[in-house]
């Protein structure tokens, strides 16, 4: 009887082993991949939210910056990680909705390889110039650029970003020839614009706002349909004379496509709870951002519509990477 009891116990242990060994999620730190360098809008938002998210989950959420190719390098890295809930990626309009049309050999397909978790924030973009540039309006900038002996350069956080397309759309709308100067993220581009190495830049409002308020950059226009409470004296591009010009950025969280649905739903719930915190809402507002809380299904539909919209613009304008 003793041998039988031992055999039954051993068999029960074998049967229960996998279930017993499977710890509840999360049982270890979570990597949050940001496909841009530190200091830009994407990084700022991830660092604002990650600490609060870690507190709610009971595990650290560690931001890892993996920049390159307009967000493609970090996004592709995230796609290739195990779909176990321990890797998420900050997605934005560039690597998720624009780059599939710009890069024929893109190593990932967002709607196939990534699971939408939560949309977090939308932001307007700013057209800023070095204060030494003798222009104080979009029309003065256009006139100045037309007289320049060489096409003026404009900095962006990278080729294929919405800011790259913002510059292309500005050039075509104003009848200008401009030179795109891509950087590996917002921070280095802003630094060079402040230093005067490049005369102007298109950037997301959160990363450029403090430099504008400090007088280190001059904002000529905002790319949203309405003015921002943070910069009420800065006109929209339409008000500045470019009718129909409207571009906004957005940011959200995604995970490798096969991440278990309960994990995706838990992440969504916790992220929405973080976005509801008064101090988080205040800080996002101070950055010029607009909270755009959205669940997995709604975020997925939004990504699909944005991909169709930007793909059509890339094809119609025949925008190609040099």
Describe what this molecule looks like in 3D:
The chain is an alpha/beta fold and 322 residues long. The protein contains twelve helices and ten strands. It has helices at residues 2-21, 41-57, 72-79, 93-102, 110-113, 138-147, 162-174, 186-195, 205-213, 261-275, 278-286, 296-317, and strands at 30-34, 61-65, 87-92, 114-129, 152-156, 178-182, 200-204, 218-222, 248-256, 290-294. Strands 1, 2, 3, 4, 5, 6, 7, 8, 9 and 10 form a ten-stranded mixed sheet that branches. α2 (41-57) links the parallel β1 (30-34) and β2. α2 (41-57) packs across α10 (261-275) and α4 packs across α12 (296-317). The longest helix is centred in the last third of the chain and has 22 residues, at 296-317. The chain is globular, with a radius of gyration of 23 Å. It starts with a helix and ends in a 5-residue tail after the last helix.
Summarize the structure.
The protein is an alpha/beta fold.
Structure annotation, total helices: 12
Beta-strand segment tally: 10
N-to-C SSE series? HEHEHEHHEHEHEHEHEEHHEH
Mean of pLDDT = 90
- Cα-atom radius of gyration: 23 Å
SSE map:
Blueprint: H1 2-21, E1 30-34, H2 41-57, E2 61-65, H3 72-79, E3 87-92, H4 93-102, H5 110-113, E4 114-129, H6 138-147, E5 152-156, H7 162-174, E6 178-182, H8 186-195, E7 200-204, H9 205-213, E8 218-222, E9 248-256, H10 261-275, H11 278-286, E10 290-294, H12 296-317
Parallel strand pairs: 1-2, 1-3, 5-6, 5-7
Antiparallel strand pairs: 3-9, 4-7, 4-8, 4-9, 4-10
């Amino acid at each position: 009887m003793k041998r039988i009891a031992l055999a039954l116990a051993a068999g029960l242990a074998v049967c229960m082993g996998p279930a017993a060994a499977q710890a509840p999620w999360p049982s270890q730190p979570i990597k949050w991949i940001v496909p841009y360098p530190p200091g830009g809008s994407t990084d700022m938002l991830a660092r604002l939210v990650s600490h609060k998210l870690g507190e709610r989950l009971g595990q650290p959420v560690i931001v890892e910056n993996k920049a390159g190719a307009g967000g493609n390098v970090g996004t592709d890295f995230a796609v290739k990680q195990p779909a176990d809930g321990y890797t998420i990626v900050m997605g934005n309009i560039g690597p998720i909705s624009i780059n599939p049309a710009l890069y024929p050999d893109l190593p990932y397909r967002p709607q196939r390889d990534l699971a939408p978790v939560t949309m977090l924030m939308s932001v307007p973009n700013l057209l800023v110039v070095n204060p030494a540039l003798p222009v104080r309006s979009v029309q003065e900038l256009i006139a100045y650029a037309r007289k320049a002996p060489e096409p003026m350069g404009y900095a962006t956080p990278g080729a294929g970003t919405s800011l790259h397309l913002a510059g292309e759309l500005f050039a075509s709308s104003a009848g200008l020839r401009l030179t795109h100067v891509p950087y590996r993220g917002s921070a280095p581009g802003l630094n060079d614009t402040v230093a005067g190495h490049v005369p102007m830049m298109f950037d997301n409002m959160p990363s450029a706002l403090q430099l504008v308020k400090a007088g280190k950059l001059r904002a000529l226009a905002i790319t949203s349909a309405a003015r921002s409470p943070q910069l009420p004296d800065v006109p929209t591009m339409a008000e500045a004379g470019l009718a129909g010009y409207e571009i906004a950025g957005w940011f959200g969280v995604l995970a490798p496509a096969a991440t278990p649905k309960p994990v995706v739903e838990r992440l969504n719930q916790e992220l929405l709870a973080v976005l509801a915190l008064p101090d988080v809402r205040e800080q996002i507002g101070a950055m010029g951002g607009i909270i755009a809380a959205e669940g997995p299904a709604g975020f997925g539909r939004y990504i699909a519509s944005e991909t169709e919209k930007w793909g059509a613009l890339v094809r119609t304008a025949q925008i190609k990477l040099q």
